[in-house]
């Protein structure tokens, strides 16, 4: 379920309005309602804490560099038990906004080695950068402590279930060899 865009936090920094002589600091701490909207947008149970702090630094005449640290405590469902799992996230990130990037019109494009470079926008929404960084930092398969994937076998009534061992292509060769050796005796 996606959160309405109006509830998601925004914090636009218009680059033309920033000083080009020093870095511009930012410190974003979303409210409880905004954290709930972000959690809904990311499809997780909740976000207990969230802070995004950093700076936008001018690079040359028109380029900018964003360096920041995201700190969050998130709650997701365990992939095994569906119980709530809390995870602490502390990550640093950087982005570079460049004015002179080549236009790409090709049907197939090779990914650049540096994935921190973005085209220069009129303004940077540091809240959107925060949400993107948080989504990339979320554990893919959160597990509660002691949660283990055991083997589950399903079959029709009256039929012997097939197990993982049965699916192994050479599982029955040992028994066949033994039966042939016993037959010759």
Cα gyration radius (Å): 26 Å
Please state the average pLDDT score.
83
Shape: elongated
Instruction: Quickly count the helices.
Output: 4
Report the uncertain regions.
Answer: 1-6
Total domain modules: 1
Widest sheet: strand ordering: 2-3-4-5-6
What share of residues are in beta strands? 25-35%
Report how far the terminal alpha carbons are from each other. Answer: 69 Å
Pfam family, one: YceD
What does this structure look like?
The strands form 2 sheets. A 5-stranded mixed β-sheet has the order 2-3-4-5-6, with helices on one face. It has one domain (5-137). It is an alpha+beta fold. The chain has 4 helices and 7 strands; from the N terminus they run ββαβββββααα. 21% of the residues lie in helices and 31% in strands. The longest helix has 12 residues, at 126-137.
How are the secondary structure elements laid out?
Elements: E1 12-14, E2 24-28, H1 32-42, E3 46-59, E4 63-77, E5 84-98, E6 117-119, E7 123-125, H2 126-137, H3 164-167, H4 173-184
Parallel strand pairs: 5-6
Antiparallel strand pairs: 1-7, 2-3, 3-4, 4-5
Throw out a few tags for this protein.
disordered N terminus, two-stranded antiparallel sheet, 5-stranded mixed β-sheet, 4 helices, 7 strands
In short:
With 185 residues, this protein is α+β, with helices and mostly antiparallel strands.
């Amino acid at each position: 379920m996606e959160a309405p865009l109006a509830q998601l936090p925004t914090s636009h920094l218009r680059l033309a309005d920033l000083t080009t002589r020093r870095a511009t600091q930012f410190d974003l701490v979303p409210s409880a309602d905004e954290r709930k909207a972000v959690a809904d947008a990311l499809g997780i149970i909740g976000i207990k804490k969230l802070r995004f702090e950093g700076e936008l630094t001018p690079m040359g005449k028109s380029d900018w560099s964003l360096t920041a640290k995201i700190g969050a405590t998130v709650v997701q469902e365990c992939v095994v038990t569906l119980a709530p799992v809390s995870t602490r996230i502390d990550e640093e990130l950087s982005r570079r906004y460049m004015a002179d990037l080549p236009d790409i019109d090709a049907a197939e494009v090779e990914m650049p080695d540096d994935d921190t470079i973005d085209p220069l926008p009129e303004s940077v929404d540091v809240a959107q950068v925060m949400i993107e960084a948080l989504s990339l930092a979320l554990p893919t398969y959160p597990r509660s402590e002691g949660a283990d994937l055991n083997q589950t076998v399903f079959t029709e009534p009256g039929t012997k279930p097939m197990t993982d061992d049965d699916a192994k292509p050479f599982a029955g060769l040992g028994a066949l060899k033994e039966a042939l050796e016993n037959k010759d005796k």
